Amino acid sequence: MTDLEEIAALMQLASPALPIGGYSYSQALEAAIDSALVSDAVSAQQWIGDLFLGVFTRSEAPLWLMSHNAWSKHDFALCAELNDYFLASRETSELRAETEQMGWSLLQLAQSLGWGDETIMQLTLLKPLSLMTAHSYACYHLGIQPHNGLAAYSFTWLENQVAATVKTIPLGQVAGQKILSALRTHLPLMVTEAQAQAQLGLAGLSNFSPQFAILSARHETQYSRLFRS
């Protein structure tokens, strides 16, 4: 039987109306467009898909699963370790600033909405706090199953990337939805691969992506930009 409460909670967390500022960031996509690596719908879909399966799935996604599991076991030392690891894995100052800002915003929202029990005090002790850690905590507290929570977290990532593409190339809304429709079919595979990676622990993670890191660094000093990353 479908758990409608869980679905409603997932919809809220994945909604673009969630006030944590995700629309402000492109994660180097704007720099890729400025460098002519992305110029149309086809190249945008290729870029986002490669980053999603080649980087996000192998690092951030399994970390999210590990963090959710740590919250569920009240292993707060591990929660802190995973939060620090994720922050250290951000390769540029703007990528780190992005996750810190959004993590802080989600914490403020969670406190305002009463998404807390005795464990939220542990969340407030994590300074700086990453979005990955705050989101996994929110899913834990709301009783969302880890595979569903990761799917919602990942869909939000995809949707923000597509929205940045539509604004920056620019593309029409229908073209953006076609990209999103194609990319969301990767979600089941991504969750399966992330679950396998999470079983290996931190030693099994990899975010090796030199071109992405270089473009993110270039974006920090890019002349005329719409996004903060």
Summarize the structure.
The protein has 229 residues and is mostly helical. Helix content is 67%, strand content 0%. The longest helix has 23 residues, at 146-168.
Task: Walk me through what this model shows.
This protein has 229 residues and is an all-alpha fold. It has one domain: Urease accessory protein UreF (Orthogonal Bundle). The chain contains twelve helices and no strands.
SSE class? mainly alpha
Q: How much is the average pLDDT?
A: 93
- Low-confidence segments, given as residue ranges, are none
Number of spatially distinct domains: 1
Rg from Cα: 17 Å
Describe the main β-sheet briefly. Answer: none
List keywords for this structure.
229 residues, mainly alpha, 67% helix
Question: What does the secondary structure layout of this molecule look like, with pairings?
Answer:
Layout: H1 4-14, H2 29-34, H3 41-56, H4 60-72, H5 76-89, H6 93-113, H7 120-124, H8 131-141, H9 146-168, H10 173-183, H11 187-199, H12 210-219
Helix pairs in contact: 1-9, 3-9, 3-10, 4-5, 4-8, 4-9, 4-11, 6-8, 8-9, 9-10, 9-11
